[in-house]
Amino acid sequence: MKTFILTADYELFLGGNTGTAEKCMVQPLYKLSGLLDINDSKMTVFWDILHYYRLIELGTTYPELSNDRLLIEKQISYLISKGHDIQLHLHPHWLEAEYKGNEWKFKYDRFDIHALSEEENPDNIYTILGCITKSKQLMEKVIRQYKPGYKVEIFRAGGYLIEPFIKLKKALKFNNIYIDSSVLPGMSEKNSYFFYNFRNYPQENYYRFRNSPSDISAEGRFIEIPVATLRIPVIRNIIFTLIRSLKYRNLEKGRMGTGSAETMNNSKKSMVKKIITLLTKPKMALLTTDGNFAERFNYMYRKAGDNSTMILHPKLLNSHTLNILKEKLQNNDLKFISIKDFLNDRK
After folding, report:
1. What angle do CA 307, 308, 312 make, to 5 degrees?
2. What whole-number distance in Å separates Cα of residue 332 and Cα of residue 275?
3. What is the pLDDT of residue 262?
């Protein structure tokens, strides 16, 4: 049996078709939690708390948003009762989100938390310090109704935009948050709205750092728990591409989430470039069920080491990926633990 750290980003889709809280967050997470009960597995849920913050602000005007808030609160209480770990996930674009015609309308000027003011004002949510401080306070206020004394101590940046870490360091220290899980070793992304590059970051499942998770420092106060990434060789990736196109053409149609996975990426590769990349370059892939299928996930399961951190998004779960997890859990091939479980075991 292998042990993976399971993390779930609890959030809606970006873009014009966000889906609903019930269909994209609540229902799939209940299904996932039910599967974890099979062998008493646990997970860390990274709650997109600024979505909830906006639900509170607009709930009196739009009763359906109050209903969303109540569904989320009920689920958070349930997850806490089952021993799961709830931690901080921030997408600051929610601060300016508008609700019109039963749809969310977004601006992305503040999608990156670094775009917030650097003024050291913990009471102003439009500053880096204030956003992290007030978000942590709100999350703890909710959770402490069900588990007194609960502390939010772990952070995952929206869009994985943890760098430059030095701009977030003081705010995290102010809030006693010294654990991060935002790094995707070996991966990079660039589009019109944000950019990250983790190509030369440590390929470890746990390490300490001081001013940037790019550099291991044994004496560093901060801890990085990176999401596991795997290098898939060219031939293997070609095989998986063929399996995906021939066997799983309708995989996305079975997704539980009702929205669409808009990436905000305006520069699309030509088909020729995609083919050249497929035929010449190994692929770096996340350890995840998102968009995955049995043959590819089983390969990643075999290659990933114990205590690797897996990521998934409830909105992207479907019957196929749920069945993959169900089989692994029923056979005791796989046990999931939360980040807190992992860290407690190291003490």
Report:
1. 125
2. 38
3. 59
Distance (Å, rounded) from C-alpha 5 to C-alpha 30? 18
Q: Is the dihedral of CA 290, 296, 302, 304 positive or negative?
A: negative
CA dihedral (159, 160, 164, 170) positive or negative: positive
pTM (predicted TM-score)? 0.95
CATH of the domain at 34: 3.20.20.370
Q: How far is CA 171 from CA 25, 136, 151, 292, 310, in A?
A: 28, 11, 16, 36, 27
Residue-wise pLDDT tens digits, 235-266: 999 999 999 999 998 887 778 778 876 555 44
| Cα–Cα distance, 171 to 177 (Å, whole number) | 9
> The tokens 């350890």 sit on which residue?
287
Q: Rounded CA gap, 86 and 339, in Å? A: 10
Overall number of domains in the chain:
1
**Structural domain harbouring 99:** 2-346
With a CB cutoff of 8 Å and minimum separation 6, the contacts of 70 are none
Cβ contact 334:298 at 8 Å: no
Helix or strand (DSSP H, E) at 25: none
Q: Which residues contact 298 (CB under 8 A, 6 or more apart)?
A: 324
| Bridging pattern class, strands 195-197 and 188-190 | antiparallel
Please name the amino acid found at residue 10.
Answer: Y
pLDDT (0 to 100) of residue 267: 46
d(CA 333, CA 329): 6
